[in-house]
Structure prediction request, 363 residues.
Amino acid sequence: MHINDLPTPAVIVEREKLRINLEEMAQVAEQAQVKLRPHIKTHKSPFIAHWQKSLGAQGAAAATIDEAETMIYSGISDIFVAYPMGEIHRARRLARLSRLARLSVGVDSSIGVQMLAKAAASCKTTIDCLIEIDTGLHRSGLKDETQVLKLAETIHAMPSLRLKGLFTHAGHAHGQDAAGRETIGKQEGELIVEMGSILKARGFSIEEISTGSTPSAAVVAEVPGVTEIRPGTYVFYDASLAASGVVGWDRCALSVLATVVSHPVPNRYILDAGSKSLSKDQSQDIPGFGVIKGIESSFVSWVNEEHGVIEDASLDLAIGDKVEIIPNHACVVMNLFDEYYLVENDLVLGRIPVLARGHRHLT
Ligand SMILES: Cc1ncc(COP(=O)(O)O)c(C=O)c1O
Prediction:
């Protein structure tokens, strides 16, 4: 089957670009001698997680329990849930999963720690914890040394928990130029390593310092004391990362294949990929909701749920033509589809399920 025979909208992933992206990040980790724990929220696909593992990745990082569970059931046996604890069903499911795999969990509050400790004790299991440190994103995570020490003591007092280390996510490295990524990456690494030293000086054993996103991974991996990097979006990259210069457009491995379904006036083309295919995520570095592959100056100007509108008179398209859109944010797009097509040149190699998409509420 050829790409043009596919029904649309569809997510397509170019195998060769994916391979280059996976191998390059594996090399970054290997050269810096840090572990690579890819964040699988980007692809949500055991097929890619196992590929990452075959290139040396240490298990995976996940945000949701569904992601963790899907990866564990597919045979990925070392998972770090890099998301704040604080919801009781999540704690219970994690405790049960920890009987099936090597599981570690992010924490940033004593309420969360207590929830997890209780759930772990009732499952007669011990769970590894990493305290989340805020190194500048100002999302979750603790910044204050006294609070971090207190939380470390709380974890230490729980027989069903073990303090494994610290983690951080400097997501503010996204949208920065090369100099900004360098500054933020260094700061991210140095701040968390420093916090680790403070805890070690107080007698805590800190074996893992886990950090690094796609734009900061190469910088932070070289900061002495960092033991692990957790980039996610690097598997596909996307229009936001290409527009801010993290990689060239030729490295964007994922696109949404769409069909021109209407062309009512010369400068307006309507695609069958709207916000339910491309999402509404925007980028500070480019306008619109996705860029036309191969004509990066053209973009989807606006979206409704099932309509993507291109306003560009210079294009020469007809109703029925197919176009590929590089989305602004690849991770959310993957979550919108049940499956993706792996392609090589124009040939469709396979239809692969996005097994960890969405939220399931199994208690
Ligand atoms: C906690 C955490 N770790 C790692 C990542 C991976 O970052 P990126 O997708 O920029 O590589 C994310 C992304 O959202 C995250 O939230």
